[in-house]
Each structure stands twice: as C-alpha cells, then as structure tokens.
Amino acid sequence: TLLDxxxxxxxxxxxxxxxxxxxxINEENFLDNINFQDSEKEMKKRPPIVTIxxxxxxGKTTLLDTIRKTNVVDTEAGRITQSIGAYQVEWxxxxxxxxxxxxxEAFSKMRAVGADLxxxxxxxxxxxxxxxxxxxxxxxxxxxxxxxxxVFVNKMDKPNPNIDRILTQLxxxxxxxxxxxxxxxxxxxxxxxxKGVDELLEAVIVTSEIMxxxxxxxxxxxxxxxxxxxxxxxxxxxxxxxQSGTLALNDYILIGEYYGKVKxxxxxxxxxxxQAPPSTPVRIxxxxxxxxxxxxxxxxxxxxxxxxxxxxxQQSTKMKKLSNFGTSFSEDNNGVKQLNVLLKAxxxxxxxxxxxxxxxxxxxxxxxxxxxxxxxxISESDIDLARTSKSLVISFNLKTSIKVSDYANSxxxxxxxxxxxxxxxxxxxxxxxxxxxxxxxxxxxxxVEIREIWSHTDVGKIAGCRVLTGEIKRNSLARIKRNGxxxxxxxxxxxxxxGKDSISxxxxxxxxxxxxxxxxxxxxxxxxxxxxxxxxxxx
Length: 539
Ligand code: GDP
Hints:
Elements: H1 5-15, H2 30-33, E1 44-45, E2 49-54, H3 60-71, E3 86-91, E4 94-99, H4 104-112, E5 120-126, H5 133-145, E6 149-154, H6 163-172, E7 185-188, H7 197-211, E8 214-215, E9 222-231, E10 235-244, E11 247-248, E12 252-255, E13 258-266, E14 275-276, E15 281-287, E16 296-300, H8 303-322, E17 330-331, E18 337-345, H9 348-359, E19 366-375, H10 380-389, E20 392-396, H11 402-410, E21 415-418, H12 421-435, E22 439-456, E23 460-473, E24 477-482, E25 485-498, E26 501-502, E27 505-507, E28 511-516, E29 527-536
Parallel strand pairs: 2-4, 2-5, 5-6, 6-7, 18-19, 18-20, 20-21
Antiparallel strand pairs: 1-8, 3-4, 9-10, 9-16, 10-15, 11-14, 12-13, 12-16, 13-15, 17-18, 22-23, 22-29, 23-27, 23-28, 24-25, 24-29, 25-26, 25-28
Helix pairs in contact: 4-5, 4-10, 9-12
The protein binds guanosine-5'-diphosphate.
C-alpha cells in the first residue's frame, strides 16, 4: 500500500474529509465497531477506573479495604456487601472507580478478550520486600497496555525500608520515578495504618486530570461486562461498567450474545438506582442469559432488532468456537512489522544468553519485540499476555504443566519449547522473514494481437487473436495497448478457447479466442501483453 491508515487519516483531516476504515460490519463484530460521534462539547469529565496490582502479600487487599472503608460514597460505609466487581469512592468531590479484584490476572483476562477498561494502575510494592516476580509481571502488563502506573510503596511502618533499592529496581523495568526525572508518581505509606492513602488518591485524581478522561453522559449507554452469574431470585445478573452514556432502568440492552430489559439496577452497595452515568459499576438483572467477562454491551431503542441480533450472535459464536485464532504480529509506531515474543527460560544465565543472541538477529523491515522475558515456568497469566499482545510464546529448558498448555490451547496460543539456544535464533529469523509483506512481481508470459471480434450473447465479446510471442494462459492478466497507448491493464482472461474447445494455454503461432473479465472494449489490431503477478519470497 502507498499510504498507511494513519497517513490516510491525516490527509483526510487536512482536506476536511471524513476518514472511515472499511470493515464488513456483521452481527458478530458490530459491537466492536460501534463508533459514537460525540461532539467535543458533549464530553464531560468521568471518574478514572483503577486496578490495583502487585506481588502476593504486598498489601493489595488491605489497601482496597482501607480505601473502601474510609472513603466509600454511601453513608453505610464499610458495610460488607457481596462484590459487584468494582466500587466507587469519593475523594474531595471526585469519584474514583476501583476494580475490587486486585492483581494482574483480572486485568489481563479482560484485556485478553479485548476489553481495555483500566485507566490507571496502582502498583503496590512492600517496602521490606522490593520488586518480586508478580510485581514485574504487573509492570509488563501495564506497560504493554500503555496504562499509567502509580507506585504505592506499602508497609513503610516495617523496619529498614529500602526505598532506593525499590526505585532502582523500578527504573530497571522502565518505570522511572519523578524524583529521578521520570513520569511515575511514587507514594510511600502503609495500607494497614491508613498512611499515605490520601496522597495516593490525590495522585490518582491528578493523573486522571492530566489524562482528561471524558465521556458523553447524554446518550444511550454502552460498556463492558465485568462478571455475570445466575442469581436464584433474579435470574441472570451481570455486573457491568458503563463506559459512556447513561444507563437507565427499563433500557433495552444487548449484552454479549444475550439481551433483555434492565429490570433492576443496583450500585456497589446494593442500593437500587434508576440511572448510572459513565464509569459507574452496576449490577443489572432482566437479561436472558449469562454473558462472559469482557463482553461488550450496548443499549438500543429497538427491541425487535435486539432479539434478532442476539439470535444471530449466538449462532455465530457457535461457529467461531470451531475455528481458532493463531499467533500474529503487530506494527510499531513507524509501521515496522514486529514479531511479539514472550520468552521464559529456566535460569537467568540462559535468559540473558538468549536475549543477547536475539539482539543480533537482523532482518530488514521487521524486528523482534520482547514483550516479556523472565525466568520460571509459563503461567496462565503469561498466556493471557501472549493472547493480548499476539505474542509467540517461547520456553527454554522448561516443562509446561498440562493445565497451562490446555489453557494455551483454549486461547489459540502455541508454546514452542527449545533446549538449544541457537535454534531459537533460527526460528525467530525465519518468522521475521515470514512476516514481511510479500513482494509481488510481474512476470511476462507473452503478447498477442487481436485480429477478429465475435459477439456472443452469453459471454459478451470474444477476441480472436494470434499469439505473437510466448504464450497466453487462462486466468492470467492482460494489458491492452492500442497504437502504443495503454487502454487497460490488470484484466483477467476469463476464458480461452481454440475452436469450440476450452484450453488452458496457447503458444506462439497459434490462434485462439479469449474473453476478459468485465471488459469488452477491445478492437481489431489491439496488442495485448499477457502476464502474471507472482509473489517473491524474502531470502
Ligand atoms: P495481597 O496478597 O497483596 O492482597 O496482600 P494483603 O492485603 O492480604 O496483605 C498481606 C499481609 O500484609 C497481611 O497480613 C496484611 O495485614 C499485611 N499488611 C498489609 N499492609 C501492611 C502495612 O502497611 N504494614 C504492615 N506491617 N503489614 C501490612
């Protein structure tokens, strides 16, 4: 292609045209392609959506509890209610939405199904423990998702916290604190003793203001399913998050494959509400099935259409389960093709050796992007990241558990295991060459001269010709020249005949008749070049 999507968009912008990428919208993908045109002045500030991540026992749950107990909006603060997946707190007249399943598993599962909900990640690091494998994993996930991180150094009440070591470890992972000239806010405190939590909430608000998070509250709502289940009393219930618009009681909703009418809506305190603006988590009932986590939903005013779409979506999901996805590649900001790789190795030594060997791989026009390089067995969370980032999963000298490989299978991810480092390099090189755009070349086949024209009621005009050089082949392409001038090119030769017989080719010296795909304007004396387009493989 001459221009990529971004350049075309820019051109259109410059000339004032509307740029719309063409996709075949069908009942299966239309929820992904809905594009509301909200005018800038309708857009209103919305609360940030926050996920807390970090290593086990570093204090994520304690932090969530402390935030919830001290700042929850409702007067019945602290009342234990069954979770609806997320809750909201108020801080200095600002609402903040927190997912209440801490950890990157929930975050990456959502992202694996294409649901980007989290605006800000709070990374909890225990002062006495520093960065641990799950902290690093969380960083990889957040960085890949390009979600800003705020670091909360927890357990500052414990003796001998080593802040410098933590800041160093963070910066080695690409998370550089403000003091050191980076962008990341680092707040110190104690979740258990409610120290530093106010500063943390302040940091969330400051970050969200910089991000200018906005949504249009004055239209029909759409959003994402956090979780759904069957409730004995109420039937199918879905915990959902409103991304834009305002959801109201009695709205018709299409959610994943299902639909319904919002019969009842409660907030995170189980209080019945009639309306929910952007960034609000609510539980709804009235739907005719249990959608999946990450399923998109949308409100429509046409309930007949809703039923029809829901039926079709259920059918197509059944079909889709039969096929699978497969690894792919992406493009960096400069349009260079990149192969995303998630690499796990048995020891630090082999990890470093593989990494440096991979640095020496040099394929023009394509590059390797190491989404994650770590030691230890492949986990389900690795698979989620691989799915989201469309990565190839490579393991070195490791045994993958049956559970994980089953999970990988179900996600359409294949794990490649190696025991010889150089084989990894060869494989990566081979794959990098494979992802380059194929180059196409024209291959000349011959030339013919049109000597006679016949009309046929069924096939239109037939060109009677004599092959001058080379050959003419059915299904090859024609370029017609008249007195040296180009008339048309790239038209397919749809049929080729000698007398009454269909033939597949005719050599120089022979006479034959051919028809062209949707083109009849040839005349006697036209010279036609016959050629094929062939793919050239990269060496
Ligand atoms: P999670 O696994 O990250 O959710 O960690 P938890 O919130 O369950 O906390 C793990 C342990 O650390 C618990 O025993 C907490 O009481 C303790 N803890 C959490 N925050 C602090 C803190 O600020 N100071 C101290 N000393 N302990 C804390």
